[in-house]
Amino acid sequence: MLVLDGVFHQASGAASPTFRAIKAPTTEDITELTRKIQKRIVRLFERRGLFDDDREASSDEQSLVGSYAASSRGRIGFGENSGKLHQRLLSDAPVQAGKAERAANISGFDLHANLRV
After folding, report:
1. C-beta atoms surrounding 65 within 10 Å
2. In which domain, by residue range, is 103 found?
3. Are 24 and 16 in contact (CB under 8 A)?
């Protein structure tokens, strides 16, 4: 994804445009965006049947698919609590903050926005 740092604006009568920088997103902005992306991707995968556990697969592959599906949904994948939500709700998914400015990691979805090209 590419987001602009600002815009060029040419005032009437000015010989050339000047660059006007826009305010950079905050870490909180990036965290909220990452949370939205994570939720939307999970919903998209569910609509497309990518979490469908009924398709034919080897037992090893089926275990792995089930584990991935449960993990991305914020659910327990194995054992007597299989299918139950983790203790944290999806909206309160663990956020790894503080590692980098303008970056977030929510349930394995990473977004880094502190790079300028």
Report:
1. 18
2. 6-112
3. no
- Triad 19, 20, 25: Cα angle to 5°: 125
Over residues 47-66, the mean pLDDT reads 70
Q: How many domains does the chain have?
A: 1
Q: pTM here?
A: 0.52
> Could you tell me if residue 97 is inside a domain?
yes
Q: Roughly how many angstroms between the first and final C-alpha of the chain, as a whole number? A: 12
> Is position 47 within any domain?
yes
pLDDT in tens, 71-86: 777 777 777 877 777 6
Cα–Cα distance for residue pair 102/98, rounded to 1 Å = 9
